[in-house]
Amino acid sequence: MKCLIVFGLIVAAFAALGGYGYLVFTDLVKPLPKPEFNDNTYWGPGEEKDYKPDTKIYEFKLDVPQAEIDDLRQQLNRTLKLTEPLDGIAFEYGFNTYALEQFVEYWREKYLTKWDERQELFNSLKQYTTEIQGLNIHYIHEKASEEAAARKHVYPVLLLHGWPGSVREFYDFIPMLTKDQNISDYAFDVVAPSLVGYGWSDPATRPGFNAAEMATVMRNLMLRLGHKQFFVQGGDWGSIIGSNLATLYPENVIGYHSNMCVLNSPLAILKGIYASFYPEKYLPSRFFVDHHFPVWEKYLELLKESGYFHIQATKPDTIGAALTSSPVGLASYILEKFQTCTNPGLQQDFGAIVTVFGLETVLDNLMVYYLTNSATTAARFYLENVSKTYRDLQLDRVQTPVPMGCARFRFDLPSVTDWQLRDKFPNLKHSMYFQQGSHFAALEMPAMLYNDFTIFVRKLGLHGEENI
Amino acid sequence: MAKIFMGLLVIGLALLAAIVSKKYQDLQAPGERPELDITAYWGPKLKEPYRENQAILPFDISVKPEVIADLKVQLSRPLKAQEPLEGVGFQYGFNAKELGKMVKYWRDIYLNKWSKREEYLKKFDHFQTEIQGLKIHFIHVKPNLEKNQKPKKVLPLLLMHGWPGTVRKFYDFIPLLTTPSDKSEYVFEVIAPSLPGYGWSQGSSKTGFGVAQMAVVMRNLMLRLGFEKFLIQGGDAGSAIGSNLAALFPENVLGYHSNMCMNSSPLGSIKLVLSSFFPSWFVDTEYADFYKGLGHFLGVVLEEMGYFHIQASKPDTIGNALIDNPVGLASYILEKFSTWTNTEYKGRSDGGLTQRFTYDQLLDNVMIYYVTNSITTSMRLYAEYATEDQFSSKVDSIPILAKAGCTRFRHEINHFPDSVLANKFLNLVHSTHHAEGGHFPAFEVPQQLYDDFINYVKKANF
């Protein structure tokens, strides 16, 4: 009799534990409602009451004084004191010294001596600035060409870059979107801003400017330009900002396309662990298994590559001071990402950056950070997005009805499966796996990205297209 | 029926207890000493077989005037560091306003009296000798025994700095150690090397030169200088290297004193985690507030270990970004002298740097990294630590048999209670807590560190 009671108590205890666990679980994984969000916070310097809004749009042209270029060449002409790599080491300990020396030489002797050409290229796309919520925002605005507009359906699209990228990433992508490509019924009015704190956009002068605030400013930018409804496309931070835009302002977003489909809600994480045991069950093909699994391997790779994330998310001003004080230092830090974000780079190939992107392109992007002195403000974005204020928004748990398209490039940072995405994007219309390509998709394979984006657009059936 | 279930449950629990107890005994058991090559060559590739040059030569740390002149020019460039955000002190890292002040002082005052600073750095005798292919720099200070004083016992002492420190940290500590005092029967003959890859010591040209391998070089250095048995004192990396030395070469180590005692054996790590959950089970109530629990521990790891993460994965990237970048070097290195001295200094716009140090002290330390171009090689130690192979983890499990002293300064980032250190330090004769002081006690509170050290030496009764 006593035995039965004891046994019964043990069972009751486990049942209680199980019940409690179930309650915690359901609470953790249930979707959350859209949070209240102020879409008009003043982010400029000084007090809001003294702020006189200026809604005018100004033309922008890059015109760097020759003295600045000369000074940079002089700095790059200093005798380098870089430490030799260890025996037999390529890029396993970080960006290789010999490669860095070669880049610095090219930058100084070949690139900067034809800076006028590079500047002309920068200015080949029309650029403007306008003030949103107290911040001066720089952006490219290229309308669909006349020929395209005559024959195609034209929609606005907001292109969002990330770190250590810039609007430069989109220079081959944008002409594809605005011109008649003869493969799609669509053409686009493209708006590609420099993110707040990046490139030629002002930085925030107060703490708290996170990815939800960024999404708000970008949405308000589009409204300023007369686009009440638009597409959003982005990778890296651009993908996360786009996701926030689709979540907070679904009424403005026709469709959201991402080339870095990440999701970090508790449910997504749990699902990821579960799916790692049955990978083929949750993927369209067994060939795509290594995009996501094995989880521990992906995690270790991420750990190895995320030192920059950790330091920028905790001490952005420390690392920023270092990067703004030395162009060689800036090159070492940023070029490392262009090296490791390619397939040949991961194989320790010294020619990776040259063959995948081209030296001029990568140096153009580096110049954006150098000329605008934005390394610190760019890094601060990381701290804002790991802060409690941002995490408390729990935007990854908020569903959005906005149609979503996801392009996964094989050598990008790990993405999540459709099974996970649908919890946030129930209207996931398009999902594609590419067995090539990596993080800087718009730069590396703009035609693929363009193709994928227009397929996504078509799938929305905005003009009666049948389901393909 | 119920009886059968009860029986099964009891058997199950008994089996579980037996397995856990065996595992615990396994974890408790000391590790075996691994195979060691104490003559491994770490220098650059040679055409002929290596022949170690065993000469011990005086070393001139003088800096060429061109280097100082060039540094002044670089520091005169407009400072491009971004204005700090409104209301922010050091919470986002090194505050640019404070950095501007420091750069101005560096350029306008410090460099103008550089010859005095250099003279000061030369107040001890500097030497260099070659160990396993690496030129190792060290300071050697003999005790100043005076004839009319009561004779003291002399003990050799190996002092090891860490990152981002240098031998400069010990400049106020060494005179206390080498000058006879009524407080102690002992006086010390001090060897303070620059760690390989730091300051004026050459860095390894080969991969695999981690903490244990540094310990081998340091031990060989002491033997070269004629010290078969010696004491060790260190913090940060110096503490880890000393701990490896004591574990690998018990025959050479008289005693080990550290202000950052750690136990990285598997059992130690488990106990550390447990003690974070239930601190009161593991520590004396008197110093309970030194041990802050799991939340704090994880928070600190995340908040303060960004540098560790990037140095352990991409040392050459970040190192090459700081070489020939005096402003960057100052920002990156001196941030630690703020936050690791007292985490509350993060709230201050000046980072509290001058609360415990002078600009001269701090810049002396930065200058050593700058003029020797050693920042990259200094960081590679972290990468070697991260790619720990079988070897180093075995060393972690080897206990230290020598008489040990562990002292804790309140504002150090994390502390290991004695109970967690137990299976590593089998002969812990001295364990103390100090109400003040942070990560750099030799630099910040040298008198307190000295008092603690001689207290330990007294208890050890060598």
From TrEMBL, chain A:
Question: Which Pfam families does the entry link to?
Answer: EHN
Q: Name one GO biological process term.
A: epoxide metabolic process
Q: Name the active site residues.
A: 236 (nucleophile), 382 (proton donor), 439 (proton acceptor)
The chemistry this enzyme catalyses reads: cis-stilbene oxide + H2O = (1R,2R)-hydrobenzoin; 1-(4-methoxyphenyl)-N-methyl-N-[(3-methyloxetan-3-yl)methyl]methanamine + H2O = 2-{[(4-methoxybenzyl)(methyl)amino]methyl}-2-methylpropane-1,3-diol
Q: Which Gene Ontology cellular component annotation is one that this UniProt entry carries?
A: endoplasmic reticulum membrane
This protein's membrane topology, according to the annotation, is: Single-pass membrane protein
Tell me if Glycosyltransferase is a UniProt keyword of this record. no
Superkingdom of this entry's organism?
Eukaryota
Location in the cell: Endoplasmic reticulum membrane; Microsome membrane
Record's keyword terms, sorted: Aromatic hydrocarbons catabolism, Endoplasmic reticulum, Hydrolase, Membrane
Broadest EC class assigned to this enzyme: hydrolase
UniProt keyword annotation of Hydrolase present: yes
E.C. code: 3.3.2.9
One GO molecular function term of this record is: cis-stilbene-oxide hydrolase activity
Q: Where is the Epoxide hydrolase N-terminal domain?
A: 58-170
Question: Family, per the entry?
Answer: Belongs to the peptidase S33 family.
Q: What is this protein's function? A: Catalyzes juvenile hormone hydrolysis.
**Record protein name field:** Epoxide hydrolase
Q: Species name for this entry?
A: Drosophila ananassae
What would be the name of the gene that encodes this protein? Dana\GF13741
TrEMBL record, chain B:
Q: What compartments host this protein?
A: Endoplasmic reticulum membrane; Microsome membrane
Which GO biological process categories is it annotated with?
A: epoxide metabolic process
Recorded topology in the membrane: Single-pass membrane protein
GO cellular component, alphabetical, reads:
endoplasmic reticulum membrane
For this UniProt entry, the molecular function terms from Gene Ontology, in alphabetical order, are: cis-stilbene-oxide hydrolase activity
Q: Where is the Epoxide hydrolase N-terminal domain?
A: 57-170
Which principal EC class is assigned to this enzyme?
A: hydrolase
**What are the UniProt keywords, alphabetically?**
Aromatic hydrocarbons catabolism, Endoplasmic reticulum, Hydrolase, Membrane, Signal
Q: Where is the signal peptide?
A: 1-21
InterPro entries (alphabetical): AB_hydrolase_fold, Epox_hydrolase-like, Epoxide_hydro_N, Epoxide_hydrolase
The answer to whether the entry has keyword Nucleotide-binding is no
Which sites are catalytic? 236, 382, 439
EC numbers for this chain: 3.3.2.9
| Source organism, top-level taxon | Eukaryota
Q: Which reaction does it catalyse?
A: 1-(4-methoxyphenyl)-N-methyl-N-[(3-methyloxetan-3-yl)methyl]methanamine + H2O = 2-{[(4-methoxybenzyl)(methyl)amino]methyl}-2-methylpropane-1,3-diol; cis-stilbene oxide + H2O = (1R,2R)-hydrobenzoin
* Function in brief: Catalyzes juvenile hormone hydrolysis.
Q: Which family does the entry's similarity section mention?
A: Belongs to the peptidase S33 family.
Please report the name of this protein according to its UniProt entry: Epoxide hydrolase
Taxonomic source organism? Drosophila ananassae
Gene name of the encoded protein: Dana\GF13742
